[in-house]
Write a structure and sequence with these properties.
The complex is a heterodimer of chains A (about 110) and B (about 120). With about 110 residues, chain A is mainly beta. Chain A contains no helices and eleven strands. In chain A, the strands form two sheets. In chain A, strands 2, 4, 5, 9, 10 and 11 form a six-stranded mixed beta sheet that branches. Chain A has a five-stranded antiparallel beta sheet with strand order 1-3-8-7-6, with no helix packed on it. In chain B, the strands form two sheets. In chain B, strands 2, 4, 5, 6, 9, 10 and 11 form a seven-stranded mixed beta sheet that branches. In chain B, strands 1-3-8-7 form a four-stranded antiparallel beta sheet, with no helix packed on it. The chains are: A mainly beta (about 110), B mainly beta (about 120). At the A-B interface, strand 4, strand 5, strand 9 and strand 10 of A face strand 4, strand 5, strand 6 and strand 10 of B.
Chain lengths: ~110, ~120
């Protein structure tokens, strides 16, 4: 089983739709969680950190479920500019060596 | 504010050649990282430097060496390139080790092809 698993998609949704991605992780010692977005042939860019209580940034909401070992990303009112690959990142406390990126979920928002 | 810069952007090597990928950050970050990204796979950590003067292996260190030249610069060297090292290489930095909750910022990447 991969340490971090994401549904690769692609997810094709119309503008204005709500879409959700999940990311499951296997290391129960994981302490830090992030969502990054990556545009085609570009570097990953931080979208948001994921906090235990869940957090929201505009149209984006991130949730952490430690019991079931997954994090989620919800995008409301999708825009064409949201088309990208979304990467989840999981890291246990204090060790960069075990930092693990998911393979990414591809999202295309259609006009 | 340039953030994280990488040179070169593109490189083609023949098998057995050597080269150094350069990375610099101007955010006064302590920790720096080198990743490779292959199609269909997540980013994989090659080496990292928790702070100036220290380096440590990541998930896939074989065939690579690194140097933390100073707080700003972290270079990655391929001593004898192999086709399996064809990939996109990203450098990243963070204020402190990402495992402590600090966010990483990435450079634009180097696209390396080994023939």
């Amino acid at each position: 089983r991969k340490e971090v698993e994401q549904d690769p998609g692609p997810f094709n949704v119309p503008e204005g739709a709500t879409v959700a991605f999940n990311c499951t992780y296997s290391n129960s010692a994981s302490q830090s969680f992030f969502w990054y977005r990556q545009d085609c042939r570009k570097e990953p860019k931080l979208l948001m950190s994921v906090y235990s209580s869940g957090n929201e940034d505009g149209r984006f909401t991130a949730q952490l479920n430690r019991a079931s070992q997954y994090i989620s990303l919800l995008i409301r009112d999708s825009k064409l500019s949201d088309s990208a690959t979304y990467l989840c990142v999981v890291a246990p406390s204090g060790s960069a060596r075990q930092l693990t990126f998911g393979s990414g979920t591809q999202l295309t928002v259609l006009p | 504010n340039a953030g994280v810069t990488q040179t070169p952007k593109f490189q083609v090597l023949k098998t057995g050649q050597s080269m150094t990928l350069q990375c610099a950050q101007d955010m006064n970050h302590n920790s720096m990282y080198w990743y490779r990204q292959d199609p269909g796979m997540g980013l994989r950590l090659i080496y990292y430097s928790a702070s100036e003067g220290t380096t440590d292996k990541g998930e896939v260190p074989n065939g690579y060496n690194v140097s933390r030249l100073n707080k700003r610069e972290f270079s990655l060297r391929l001593e004898s390139a192999a086709p399996s090292q064809t990939s996109v290489y990203f450098c990243a930095s963070s204020e402190a080790l990402v495992g402590a909750g600090y966010e990483q910022y990435f450079g634009p990447g180097t696209r390396l092809t080994v023939t």
